[in-house]
């Protein structure tokens, strides 16, 4: 299984609660219709400078949802597969 396939099977945290400052995380960007997905690994997450619009750039998709998971947990669990 490829990492991207594994990432699509996970249940992601919403940004109602932000990850701890400085944590390494994966951010999942998905279009509201569920057709487009992006996964970005961020080292040392910084809530103050977090700008989700920079992650999707000038994409023609205008409505994105953002979620996150701990990079350490993802990588540890994926290694067990």
Secondary-structure blueprint:
Layout: H1 3-7, E1 13-14, E2 25-31, E3 37-42, H2 52-56, E4 64-70, H3 71-79
Antiparallel strand pairs: 1-4, 2-3, 2-4
Q: What would you say this structure looks like, in words?
A:
This protein is globular. A hairpin with a 5-residue loop joins β2 and β3 (37-42). It is built from 3 helices and 4 strands, in the order αβββαβα. The chain has 81 residues and is α+β, with helices and mostly antiparallel strands. Helices cover 23% and strands 27% of the residues. The protein has helices at 3-7, 52-56, 71-79; strands spanning 13-14, 25-31, 37-42, 64-70. The protein has a 4-stranded antiparallel sheet. The chain has one domain. The chain starts with a helix and ends with a helix. The longest helix has 9 residues, at 71-79. The mean pLDDT is 93.
């Amino acid at each position: 299984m490829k990492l991207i396939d594994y990432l699509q099977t996970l249940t992601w945290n919403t940004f109602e609660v932000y990850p701890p400052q400085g944590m390494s995380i994966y951010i999942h960007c998905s279009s509201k219709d569920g057709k487009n997905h992006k996964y970005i690994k961020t080292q040392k997450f910084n809530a103050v400078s977090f700008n989700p619009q920079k992650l999707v750039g000038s994409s023609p998709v205008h409505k994105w949802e953002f979620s996150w998971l701990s990079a350490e947990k993802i990588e540890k669990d994926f290694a067990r597969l």
